Amino acid sequence: MRSLYQALIDFISELILRKSHFDELVSAICIPAPIDHSTNKITQNYLWNKVPEYIKPNSIVVAETGTSEFGAAVGAAIADRSRQLFLFVGNGSFQLTFQEISEFLHHGLTPVIFLLNNDGYLIAKLIHGPERDYNNYQMWQYSKTLDFFGAHRERNTSTGCSKVGFESKISTRQEFEAAMDSITAQPDKMHFVEVVMPRFDAPRELELLVATSENC
For position 67, what pLDDT does the model report? Predict the structure, then answer.
C-alpha cells in the first residue's frame, strides 16, 4: 500500500510540475513581443505584428492547420462575398492542396493569399531536427501560381475569372508594406503574396510550445 501512495505522490508532483510549465507558456504567449528592428527581413515577429494593421473589421481570416485551409477558405469566400478573406498558408501545405487556387479564380473570388515561404517543413524541423532531408522539398516558383492557373488568359477573364491585383515575391519589410498598400487599394481583386522568410525563424509561441513539450 505504501508503494501505491508513493506512486500517487510522484504522479501528482509530476502533474503539478507540468502545470507550472503550462502556466509559464500561457503567460508568455499573452504578452506580444515588440517588433525587432535589428533586421530588414520579414520575420515571424514582424509579420504577425504588422498584419493586423491591414485587416479590416469583419474580415475573414483562415490560417492553415494542415491541408484543410483551402477548402475552408473557398467555402467562406463563396458564402459571404461582401467580406474580404485573408488566407495564410505555409509552403509545405500549399504543395499538397495548391490546385484549389483554380477554384478561387473560377468562381471570381477575391481572397488575399499569403504564401509563407521558409523553405521546408519548419515545425517538423523544430521537432525532429533542422537538417533532416525529409523535411525539405522541391522549391517552386510560388509567385507565378495565378499565371499557372490561367488567371491572365482571355478565355478565363472573359467568363468571370477573378481579376488579379498584386502577385509577386517579397522579402523585405519595405516590400511588404508596399504590397499591403497596393492590396488595400484593390479590394475587388485577388492577390497572391509570396512572403520569403528566414529559414529557421519560428513564431515565439511555437518555440515556447516545443520547449515546453521537451520539458514535460
Answer: 45
Q: 3-state DSSP call for residue 105?
A: helix
Please name the residues in contact with 133: beta carbons below 8 A apart, sequence gap of 6 or more: none
Cβ atoms 153, 107 nearer than 8 A: no
Strands (E) across the chain are located at 60-63, 85-90, 112-117, 164-170, 190-196
Q: pLDDT tens digit string along 182-194? A: 999 999 999 999 9
Please tell us whether the domain made up of 44-206 is placed in CATH 3.40.50.970.
yes
- Residues 6 or more apart whose Cβ sits within 8 Å of residue 183: 54, 112, 165, 166, 191, 193
What residue spans define the domains of the chain? 2-31, 44-206
- Phi/psi for 68 (5° steps) reads -95, -5
Q: Which residue has the higher pLDDT, 150 or 200?
A: 150
